[in-house]
Amino acid sequence: QVQLVESGGGLVQAGGSLRLSCAASGRTFSSYVMGWFRQAPGKEREFVARVTWSGGSTGYADSMKGRFTISRDSAKNTVYLQMNSLKPEDTAVYYCAAKRGNGDPWDYWGQGTQVTVSS
Predict the structure, then answer these.
(1) Using one digit for the tens of pLDDT, what is the confidence trace for 68-112?
(2) CB 39 within 8 A of CB 51
(3) Strands (E), the chain
(4) Which of 44, 45, 69, 110 could form a disulfide with 39 if both were Cys (CB 3.0 to 4.6 A apart)?
(5) 3-7 sheet: strands from edge to edge
(6) Is the pLDDT at 49 greater than 90, yes or no?
(7) What is d(CA 94, CA 91) in angstroms, rounded to the nearest whole number?
(8) In this structure, are residues 7 and 20 in contact, taking their beta carbons and an 8 Å threshold?
(9) Residue 89: what are its φ and ψ, rounded to 5°?
């Protein structure tokens, strides 16, 4: 049973930083792709970033490039999302997700962590 547990959300002022963590358990993730998504009130869930567990290849939504950095620590089975220069429009619930490979659907989701950016 795959489990993804997010942490690190909170309230931050505009221009500040937060680092989200996603602790993964339940299987070997060496071939998996890990991702972060977010959902703001009244909006659809949107892709933020992804990383391949094995090679560390990353991808980002255009609006997050240069401000957000995704990384993984294989020894800790943890994926991170470093968020800098936060804006009020970054306010959302952030979700960690996992899938078996690049062509597969995002099958596994965490419960989400709230990020609120005040102006």
Answers:
(1) 999 999 899 999 999 999 999 999 999 999 999 888 999 999 999
(2) no
(3) 3-7, 10-13, 18-25, 33-39, 46-52, 58-60, 68-73, 78-83, 92-99, 108-109, 113-118
(4) 45
(5) 3-7, 18-25, 78-83, 68-73
(6) yes
(7) 9
(8) yes
(9) -75, -5
Q: Report how far residue 40's alpha carbon sits from residue 47's, in angstroms, rounded to the nearest whole number.
A: 12
Residue 98, amino acid: A
Residues 6+ apart with CB under 8 A from 6: 20, 21, 22, 94, 95, 96, 110, 111, 112, 113
Q: Are strands 10-13 and 113-118 parallel, antiparallel or unpaired?
A: parallel
**pLDDT attached to residue 30:** 83
For tokens 């993964």, name the residue.
Answer: 24
